[in-house]
């Protein structure tokens, strides 16, 4: 893994990458992260998120389309810790997270729209490994996501980055 991801440099070197609208806050430990995409689509129910982070991540980034809801959190400290234990590189949440002070200290990249103290419902609803669309971009499993404090970019394949 390169020592530093710089999304402006990626955009300069690869002008065809897709760039998400600047909606997200960097809320995890690392400022930059990347990996192949795996997806969850859910609305105010984090059952599929819990399921995904409980499985081997193998350096992937979990992209969670929470419908942009700001009425509850889809990720907190316990699921983030489970993601770290299972080798996920990062998590993007089109929605909210909670336990922010702990997330800042957790060694996994996390970006979300914001924070909310309320936990989500547990109705065992949602879908996994399907294309999701938010921030002006459709993101599909198998694409590559690169994120830092400048933004989030999506590429159709792994990019060659200078270390």
TrEMBL record:
Source species, domain of life: Bacteria
Keywords: Lyase, Magnesium, Metal-binding
InterPro entries to which the protein is assigned, alphabetical: RraA, RraA/RraA-like, RraA/RraA-like_sf
Catalytic activity: 4-hydroxy-4-methyl-2-oxoglutarate = 2 pyruvate; oxaloacetate + H(+) = pyruvate + CO2
Cofactor requirements of the protein: Mg(2+); a divalent metal cation
GO terms, molecular function: 4-hydroxy-4-methyl-2-oxoglutarate aldolase activity; metal ion binding; oxaloacetate decarboxylase activity; ribonuclease inhibitor activity
Binding site for Mg(2+): 99
EC number annotated for this UniProt entry: 4.1.1.112, 4.1.3.17
Binding site for substrate: 76-79, 98
Coiled coil: none
GO BP annotation list: regulation of RNA metabolic process
Task of the protein: Catalyzes the aldol cleavage of 4-hydroxy-4-methyl-2-oxoglutarate (HMG) into 2 molecules of pyruvate. Also contains a secondary oxaloacetate (OAA) decarboxylase activity due to the common pyruvate enolate transition state formed following C-C bond cleavage in the retro-aldol and decarboxylation reactions.
Complex and partners: Homotrimer.
NCBIfam families, alphabetized: NOT-MenG (TIGR01935), PRK09372.1 (NF006875), PRK12487.1 (NF009134)
Membership in a protein family: Belongs to the class II aldolase/RraA-like family.
Designated name of the protein: 4-hydroxy-4-methyl-2-oxoglutarate aldolase
Source species taxonomy: Bacteria, Pseudomonadati, Pseudomonadota, Gammaproteobacteria, Oceanospirillales
């Amino acid at each position: 893994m390169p020592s530093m991801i710089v999304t402006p440099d990626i955009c300069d070197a690869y002008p065809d990458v897709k760039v998400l609208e600047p909606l997200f806050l960097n809320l995890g430990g690392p400022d930059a992260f990347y990996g192949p995409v795996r997806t969850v689509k859910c609305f105010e129910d984090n059952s599929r998120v819990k399921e995904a982070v409980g499985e081997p991540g193998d350096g992937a980034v979990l992209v969670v389309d929470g419908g942009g809801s700001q009425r509850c959190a889809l990720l907190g400290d316990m699921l983030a810790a489970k993601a770290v234990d299972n080798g996920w590189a990062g998590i993007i949440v089109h929605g909210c997270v909670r336990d922010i002070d702990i997330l800042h200290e957790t060694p996994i990249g996390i970006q979300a729209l914001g924070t909310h103290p309320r936990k989500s419902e547990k109705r065992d609803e949602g879908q996994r490994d399907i294309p999701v669309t938010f921030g002006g971009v459709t993101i599909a499993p198998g694409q590559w996501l690169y994120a830092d404090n400048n933004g989030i970019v999506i590429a159709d394949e792994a990019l060659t980055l200078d270390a």
